[in-house]
Amino acid sequence: MSVRRNTLEPDAMSAIVNCLCPECGGVIELETNRLECLRCGKHWRQVWERIRLRTASKVKRFSPTRS
Ligand SMILES: [Zn+2]
Q1: Tally of structural domains, the chain
Q2: Residue 4 falls within a domain, yes or no?
């Protein structure tokens, strides 16, 4: 098993997608657009945007092409 510390763990990604802080389990506030954890105060915006880029490329694949 190899652990890459530079990349996000799938658990952390899913947690952020569900608006939960991967580090403390607190709620990430999406309304302010800063994605700040309400418990520990950590900002997850950069991580969130990285995830969004990944999911965006995924969505592209699944998008139906109707003409
Ligand atoms: Zn937190």
Answers
A1: 1
A2: no
